[in-house]
Write a structure and sequence with these properties.
Elements lengths: L9 E8 L2 E6 L3 E6 L13 E7 L2 E7 H4 L12 E5 L5 E5 L1 E8 L9 H4 L6 E7 L2 E6 L1 H8 L9 H10 L1 H4 L4 E7 L2 E6 L3 E6 L14 E7 L2 E7 H4 L11 E7 L2 E7 L1 E7 L5 E3 L14 E8 L2 E6 L7 H13 L4 H8 L3 E8 L2 E6 L3 E6 L14 E7 L2 E7 H4 L12 E6 L4 E6 L1 E8 L4 E3 L11 E7 L4 E6 L7 H8 L6 E2 L5 E2 L1
Parallel strand pairs: 2-10, 5-7, 12-21, 15-17, 23-32, 26-28
Antiparallel strand pairs: 1-2, 1-8, 3-6, 4-5, 6-7, 9-10, 11-12, 11-18, 13-16, 14-15, 16-17, 19-20, 20-21, 22-23, 22-29, 24-27, 25-26, 27-28, 30-31, 31-32, 33-34
């Protein structure tokens, strides 16, 4: 900075918001970037646009318009994010960044700040820039006013430890991921499932492979062979549109089983599992085997597949040779899988959320009949009879003050269990079972305000530019809502009219 003899020159970054010109001291600005994809936080303060990924760091993004008490508008090609310098990165969204200017201290009229201040503004002075008045914003005062600091202090290590610590209590339950293959339902033990991902747009086909091998795709620094469940089960083939890849291990090899889609995630009653009759346990040639049959209901039978018995020995040998030929470090996937964490990913209003898989009892279609209850909050849809047990159902869109969904065809009921409560959450869609390293879990910034109660952390998948808000099941319901759900704790069945029986 130059010394003019009348004080030290100051540098300011000027920007526009709603046609007004503002400025920030250049020393408070770390960088200026284009608007990036944001993970929106439900029920967060109005000023918080969402969370962004800044080179692997979760960064809250605030709107200058909202900080000043003005209406928000859609971003344009000139919109920018000003990343503020500080211990924790915070960005503010502005309509346009105009210039970086040097201003003599004598030209800054700090005594006029009060006279120039409009409703919602916090100013530290004004100066002339290109014939217009630039107002120096006290940005930290605006942030403090809009985002009072929360008392909860969270660390990534504590979040990961809490999730990992629940495994011992819950992993004893047997759960099935059920798959749709040619309009038939098959099941895989959840413990055998590493991850569920969509079929990519492009596959690399292997010359000379048989019909069961659809190709290979990149997967976690390795190559993953994709195998058709339709072919393995002797069913008619079809296009790969909207199919899902279930990543599992067969012996020492990771493979992707391509199914038409996923149906549900259910907790198994061991008394309803039977060994498959010998005539059904293997078809001609012994290539595929059904290990067990689960009687989910009087009309719903699920054939349980055993991944380690899906293939003939010669098929497994070919897969092993493929791994060696491509020098694919598949073993590394198995080595790291034991410490990775599993989450159920789902969508609400195009935003992505996740729940620890240990807290999810099952995933099912939303029942057609939901018994309404009078004088209950708007988010409580009612109760359903789920295999003889009364289950309260929460519309998660309403719970997060989101608009009503226009398309309800893909909605799912996610049954969540906490230490004291069990409830069904209606979500727009369940996208996948996601596996990630504890290192990908980042603490949610304090600027999330009241939303910090249920958004304790963020799954930041930097390599694919994806961010999911990780919900804390125990904090998902407020005290009032938990009290309401406790009224169902002693209710175990419904009578024939469908009304709660107490």
């Amino acid at each position: 900075m130059a010394n003019t003899g009348q004080g030290i020159d100051q540098r300011y970054l000027t920007f526009r918001s709603e046609e007004r010109l503002y400025a920030l001291p250049a020393g408070q600005v770390a960088e200026v970037i284009r608007i990036t994809p944001l993970a929106r936080v439900p029920q967060a303060p109005k000023s918080l646009l969402g969370l962004a990924n800044l080179r692997g760091v979760v960064m809250p993004v605030a709107s200058v318009r909202a900080l000043l008490g003005r209406d928000e508008t859609a971003s344009t090609s000139t919109s920018r994010l000003i990343v503020l310098d500080g211990a924790a990165p915070v960005a503010v969204a502005v309509d346009e960044v105009t210039a970086l200017v040097t201003v003599a201290e004598s030209e800054i009229r700090r005594e006029d700040a009060d006279l120039a201040t409009l409703a919602g503004e916090e100013l530290r002075g004004v100066f002339q820039s290109s014939g217009k008045i630039a107002k120096i914003l006290d940005i930290h005062a605006l942030l403090t006013r809009s985002f009072p600091q929360t008392e909860a202090k969270r660390t990534t290590v504590a979040v990961a430890a809490k999730i990992d610590g629940t495994r011992a209590d819950i992993d004893g339950r047997r759960r099935l991921l059920t798959l749709d293959v040619a309009d038939q339902e098959y099941g895989l033990d959840l413990q055998a499932v590493q991850e569920i991902v969509p079929v990519p747009d492009h596959l690399t086909h292997l010359p000379g492979s048989d019909d069961v091998v659809l190709g290979v795709i990149p997967y976690r620094d390795t190559l993953l062979p994709l195998l058709s469940l339709r072919v393995l089960l002797g069913l008619p083939t079809a296009s790969l549109a909207r199919n899902k890849v279930v990543v599992t291990r067969v012996g020492d090899t990771s493979v992707g089983l391509v199914a038409d889609g996923t149906r549900s995630l259910i907790t198994v009653d061991p008394e309803l599992v039977e060994k498959a009759p010998p005539i059904l346990r293997a078809r001609a040639g012994g290539e595929t085997q059904i290990a067990e049959i689960y009687r989910a209901s009087k009309t719903r039978l699920i054939s349980i597949l055993a991944p380690d018995r899906l293939f003939r020995e010669d098929v497994m040998q070919r897969l092993t040779r493929t791994d060696r030929a491509t020098e694919s470090p598949i073993a590394r996937v198995g080595e790291t899988a034991s410490r990775d964490l599993l989450f159920l990913a789902f969508k609400l209003n195009e935003d992505e959320f996740a729940l620890p898989i240990e807290a999810v009892d099952e995933v099912a279609r939303v029942p057609e009949q939901i018994t309404r209850l009078p004088r209950t909050p708007k988010f409580l849809e009612g109760v359903v009879n789920l295999r003889g047990v009364v289950l309260p159902v929460v519309d998660q869109r309403r719970r997060f003050d989101m608009p009503t969904a226009e398309n309800i065809a893909g909605r799912r009921l996610v049954v969540v269990r906490t230490e004291q409560h069990r409830a069904g959450l209606i979500v727009d869609s369940v996208t996948e079972v996601l596996r990630c390293s504890p290192d990908a879990i980042k603490a949610a910034p304090d600027l999330t305000g009241e939303a910090a109660g249920f958004v304790r952390s963020v799954i930041n998948l930097e390599e694919v530019g994806r961010m999911l808000l990780l919900l804390d099941p125990s904090e998902l319901l407020s005290r009032t809502e938990r009290g309401l759900l406790e009224s169902f704790s002693k209710t175990t069945s419904l009578n024939e009219t469908g009304r709660p029986k107490r």
